[in-house]
Specification:
It contains two helices and no strands. It is mostly helical. The radius of gyration is 19 Å and the shape is flat. It starts with 13 loop residues before the first helix and ends in a 6-residue tail after the last helix.
């Protein structure tokens, strides 16, 4: 028994995808600039960056995936 989707996926074309990646780059510019500035001005910035990265990774990988992930298929 196969189930046919009622709403087939429609993939975005070239221009919407290019716009999305450019928007992502704009959003990531400030955190990247802060990271570069921190590496140059603070000796222990790498340690702080590592700790925050681990905490964010755990938050994302444990909490957000558990809470917002799609339910398993039957």
């Amino acid at each position: 028994m196969t189930v046919e989707p009622t709403d087939p996926l429609r993939y975005a074309g070239f221009w919407p995808r290019l716009g999305a990646i450019l928007l992502d780059m704009v959003f990531m510019l400030l955190p990247a600039a802060i990271a570069v500035w921190g590496w140059r001005h603070y000796r222990l910035f790498g340690l702080y960056y590592l700790i925050l990265g681990i905490l964010f990774g755990l938050f994302y990988g444990v909490y957000l995936v558990k809470r917002l992930a799609a339910p398993p298929a039957n």
